[in-house]
């Protein structure tokens, strides 16, 4: 007969083991015999220098006011499981780091602002959290650098997160970015500041050389991701469906970057007109257009945003090509307006004019083109309800806190990076269009950098004309 329970059951038998800390013998056993792990601070080359310049620019913008910006925490997914962590973009722009629960304090001084980064220190052998804290214990999350290593790598003062409260208590109504925890705002009288959020968005509009390099990297990996997806189209058509292609791109993005910059869109046939078709739970049909809206987020968190609509069979039907040709014409008209000195919305109006004229020529508008384009008209937008593009950077829809005059009414300047993405979306249940158009969705999207004398299409490695897309697709599905 077994007698191993006669001394009583242990106080806690689960692997998380918060009560193991109550066992002196266990603690003593866990404290000894650990070597020093080989830990390298995660640094994207050039990020510390770029972040220091970003802090300088913000300091000039906000003047003699203290500011607090937080990295944030991973949100709860369900039960005690968390979503993957992705640091707040403003925090990344100002620090170059992606440390969860990090807080940056910018304290006004005679020379501008003194910057201090507050980070949770790693929980190492000798501390009960080493084995009991699933968020920071190194038995759970792996070894991580100490705070001195962070400070040396990023050229910024770094203090333990536990010291933050005492510092915030000495500030008088510091400005808080939207990422700062509500509890900190409430306890220390911080001021949630639209001015600070707006200032950060405005500054992030004009990318420096380092940021442009990161965007080029993200876009280059996105182009090869399109290639990888196209080669899997035969298997998707063969039964694996949209989700196989979504997973193909997401795996590519995780391999060559931080991951996808947004939820990957793969829409076949009747799903293609749905603007954000991220469920990707349908089949890939062989004879209808396949819309692919995908972007790799680089390890620095700068993201691409590119769309192509391809024929899984390798050839568009005449009506599909007719739709694609009109979208291409609109796309080229919009891209032609991307240059210094042109108002931001001019590309939108140029693309929309082409779409409205084309729909009128097809007999789909029961008003004139001028009436459709008027503020009180907009009938053509039944089939294009979204905008034609947006700023691009750390967020796929970057600089969203800027006000209207700055974001949409100001002239373009060198260093701005944006997308142009017209489309036509004829839903399968839209009875206002002929049956042959129903279920066709086409979008073209490219990422453009405003230069000193025009614009550079950063994603031009992918064709945009129907014949070029047919050749590109046929070469890849033929090699599969």
TrEMBL record:
<dbReference type="GO" id="GO:0070006">
    <property type="term" value="F:metalloaminopeptidase activity"/>
</dbReference>
<dbReference type="InterPro" id="IPR000994">
    <property type="entry name" value="Pept_M24"/>
</dbReference>
<dbReference type="GO" id="GO:0006508">
    <property type="term" value="P:proteolysis"/>
</dbReference>
<keyword id="KW-0464">Manganese</keyword>
<dbReference type="GO" id="GO:0030145">
    <property type="term" value="F:manganese ion binding"/>
</dbReference>
<comment type="similarity">
    <text>Belongs to the peptidase M24B family.</text>
</comment>
<feature type="domain" description="Aminopeptidase P N-terminal">
    <location>
        <begin position="49"/>
        <end position="189"/>
    </location>
</feature>
<keyword id="KW-0378">Hydrolase</keyword>
<keyword id="KW-0479">Metal-binding</keyword>
<dbReference type="Pfam" id="PF00557">
    <property type="entry name" value="Peptidase_M24"/>
</dbReference>
<dbReference type="InterPro" id="IPR029149">
    <property type="entry name" value="Creatin/AminoP/Spt16_N"/>
</dbReference>
<keyword id="KW-0031">Aminopeptidase</keyword>
<keyword id="KW-0645">Protease</keyword>
<protein>
    <recommendedName>
        <fullName>Xaa-Pro aminopeptidase</fullName>
        <ecNumber>3.4.11.9</ecNumber>
    </recommendedName>
</protein>
<dbReference type="GO" id="GO:0005829">
    <property type="term" value="C:cytosol"/>
</dbReference>
<dbReference type="InterPro" id="IPR052433">
    <property type="entry name" value="X-Pro_dipept-like"/>
</dbReference>
<dbReference type="Pfam" id="PF05195">
    <property type="entry name" value="AMP_N"/>
</dbReference>
<dbReference type="InterPro" id="IPR007865">
    <property type="entry name" value="Aminopep_P_N"/>
</dbReference>
<dbReference type="InterPro" id="IPR036005">
    <property type="entry name" value="Creatinase/aminopeptidase-like"/>
</dbReference>
């Amino acid at each position: 007969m077994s007698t191993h329970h006669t001394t009583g059951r242990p106080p806690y038998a689960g692997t998380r083991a918060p009560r193991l800390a109550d066992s002196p013998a266990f603690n003593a056993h866990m404290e000894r015999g650990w070597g020093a792990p080989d830990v390298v601070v995660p640094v994207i080359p050039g990020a510390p220098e770029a972040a220091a310049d970003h802090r300088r620019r913000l300091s000039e913008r906000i003047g003699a006011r203290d500011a607090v910006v937080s990295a944030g925490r991973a949100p709860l997914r369900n039960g005690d499981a968390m979503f993957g962590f992705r640091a707040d973009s403003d925090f990344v722009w100002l620090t170059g780091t992606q440390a969860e629960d990090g807080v940056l304090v910018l304290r006004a001084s005679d020379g501008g602002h003194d910057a201090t980064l507050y980070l949770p220190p790693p929980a190492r052998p000798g501390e009960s959290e080493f084995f009991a804290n699933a968020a920071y214990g190194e038995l759970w999350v792996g070894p991580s650098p100490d705070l001195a290593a962070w400070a040396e790598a990023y050229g910024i003062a770094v203090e333990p997160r536990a010291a933050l409260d005492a510092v915030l208590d000495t500030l008088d109504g510091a400005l808080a970015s939207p990422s700062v925890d509500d509890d900190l705002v409430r306890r220390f009288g911080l001021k949630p500041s639209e001015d600070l959020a707006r200032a950060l968005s405005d500054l992030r509009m004009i990318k420096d050389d380092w940021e442009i390099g990161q965007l080029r990297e993200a876009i280059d990996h996105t182009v090869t991701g399109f290639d990888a997806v196209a080669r899997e189209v035969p298997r998707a058509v063969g039964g694996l469906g949209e989700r196989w292609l979504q997973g193909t791109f997401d795996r590519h993005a995780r391999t060559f970057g931080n991951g996808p910059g947004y939820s990957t869109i793969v829409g076949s046939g009747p799903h293609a007109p749905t603007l954000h078709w991220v469920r990707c739970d349908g089949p890939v049909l062989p004879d209808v257009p396949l819309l692919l809206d995908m972007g790799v987020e680089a390890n620095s968190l700068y993201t691409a945003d590119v769309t192509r609509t391809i024929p899984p069979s390798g050839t568009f039907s005449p009506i599909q090509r007719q739709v694609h040709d009109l979208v291409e014409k609109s796309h080229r008209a919009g891209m032609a307006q991307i240059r210094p000195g042109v108002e931001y919305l001019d590309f939108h109006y140029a693309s929309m004019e082409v779409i409205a004229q084309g729909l009128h020529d097809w007999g789909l508008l029961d008003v004139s083109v001028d009436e459709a384009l008027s503020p009180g008209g907009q009938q053509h937008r039944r089939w294009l309800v979204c905008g034609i593009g947006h700023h691009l950077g750390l967020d796929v829809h970057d600089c969203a806190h800027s006000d209207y005059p700055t974001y949409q009414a100001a002239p373009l300047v060198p260093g701005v990076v944006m997308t142009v993405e017209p489309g036509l979306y004829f839903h399968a249940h839209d009875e206002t269009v002929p049956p042959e158009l129903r279920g066709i969705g086409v979008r073209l999207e490219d990422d453009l950098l405003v230069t000193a004398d025009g614009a550079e299409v950063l994603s031009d490695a992918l064709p945009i004309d129907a014949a070029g897309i047919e050749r590109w697709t046929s070469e890849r599905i033929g090699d599969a």
